[in-house]
Design goal:
This protein has a four-stranded antiparallel sheet with strand order 2-3-1-4, with no helix packed on it. The protein has helices at about 25-40, 60-70, 80-85, 90-100, 105-115, 120-125, and strands at about 5-10, 45, 50-55, 75. By secondary structure, the protein is of the alpha+beta class. The protein has one domain (about 5-125). The model is unreliable at about 15 (pLDDT under 50). The longest helix has 17 residues, at about 25-40. It is built from six helices and four strands; from the N terminus they run βαββαβαααα.
């Protein structure tokens, strides 16, 4: 995995941890979090919508981000998050499983060997008519 990719773990930001009445406040907090990420010069690569965000950042940007987000942690993107966070909600669990697949050696090797346009779905898209009337 690229050394600039890290998993940002945001403590206390999970959707199932606050009462329903605070939904607007959660959106504001989430917006502030995403603004802090952007203003730190960090790029978001994948977002669970909860406490887990895959980011791409240089070391200086990582430091700036952690200063703006107290309580946040940066861990290697291929680390086992289940050991770090015991109370993952269903969305976060699915995100972790997908991330585990994306960071696996076999997936990365298969992705590097893939040729654009060779899957049946891509072939169908390429051969589809341009206009609806051409069906």
């Amino acid at each position: 995995m690229a050394e600039t990719l890290k998993l940002l773990v945001l403590e206390g930001a999970g959707p199932s941890r606050e009462p329903r009445e605070r939904a607007l406040e959660r959106r504001v907090d989430r917006s502030a979090t995403l603004n802090a990420i952007a203003s730190s010069g960090v790029k978001v690569r994948h977002d669970s919508g909860g406490r887990l965000v895959v980011i791409e950042a240089q070391e200086e940007a990582e430091k700036a981000l952690l200063e703006r987000l107290p309580g946040a942690r940066l861990v290697p993107v291929d680390s086992d998050v289940r050991d770090l966070i015991t109370d993952l909600d269903s969305n976060e669990s699915l995100f972790v499983e997908a991330l585990k697949i994306r960071t696996s050696k076999s997936y990365r090797e298969a992705k590097s060997r893939r040729k654009i346009g060779e899957t049946p779905e891509e072939q169908e898209l390429i051969s589809a008519p341009d206009f609806r009337g051409d069906f």
